[in-house]
Amino acid sequence: MFQDFYNVILSSVLIWYLLIFHIWECSHDFLMYFSFENNEILQTAAFICITSTISAVTALPLSIYKTFILEEKHGFNKQTPVFFVKDWLKSYLLTIVIVPSLSCIAVYIVKIGGDYFFVYLWLFAMVTMLFFMTVYADYIAPLFDTYTPLPDGDLRTKIEGLAASIKFPLYKLYLVEGSKRSVHSNAYFYGFFNNKRIVLFDTLVKDYYKSEEKNDNDDKKGCDTEEVLAILAHELGHWKHNHVLKQILIMQFCAFGFLFQYPQLYQAFGFVNEKPVIVGLIVVLQFIFSPYNSVMSFLLIILSRKYEFQADRFAKSLGKAKFLKKALIKLGKDNLSFPVYDWLYSSWHHSHPTLLQRLKHLDKED
Ligand SMILES: [Zn+2]
After folding, report:
1. Averaged confidence pLDDT in the chain
2. Which of 7, 191, 263, 310 is the most exposed place for a label (fewest CB within 10 A)?
3. Which positions are annotated as active-site residues?
4. Any binding-site annotation on 308?
């Protein structure tokens, strides 16, 4: 509630003081100061740099609170302040290199695209997304965390066996040192066509998670081999049913082409004489579309829960139901997830069914 309140205050200030307009003016002065020629593309780059900096800074207090107070209190946080600052700087630098470049290309496309610019913009968004999904894990994620190949052993052999049994084109198998960041655990796969990689968090795998607290072996967090396999069977269910691709296609709904031309939109945000493309995009996507975005995200959440059940059924069809149930309970416990939710709250907020729903679903007769 506090976070929502904070964000409402921020956007109200943004609208009330016509900040988008003033930042646009600032970026003009900025270009003049460094005696750049004044054109819309360059001004867009400056504008995005300034707005990205503002949002990186305004997001900081809540992020600090979450990491060092909330997560810390429950024993999840493993970040030192130095690690946190480095992380923040890295992602900030990455943002102000990537986002302005992409925005400039988008603006250029709108300018030369004519009446059907949104078709080209959609294509551009699609290509960019696929591009980043390809390079993210190899070039971007390693800037933040250490990825090492999973060592040879029982777990590796069995995972390779599982992948082979369902013809999953496993190309690489990584262990990521998530324990430097937090004790939350996870596993995922990524990659295209015949280049799939699986990533396991070290916090997920009992044998590789080095906790500083010397507990009895029974108390150790993480899952044993069969349970990790059951979780992977679930993840591979997402692959088998093409869930990622389907979700990307559905998310690509864009229809702002016609709204975009209305001068009233620009006037409302303080622009009387000019209609910068980037402002049109921001205003439409962020403000005009916000009811539409809420409805879309609700529908996507319904779809995502459906996919989770489908992936669970896939794991069950591989005979992993028993271990998947054990693993889900263990993960719930390790991550301190609360198991009981009001159905209404849950159906609005949760992309995954609750633990109890999943256990019940796994128990159901086929
Ligand atoms: Zn899933």
Report:
1. 87
2. 263
3. 235, 312
4. yes
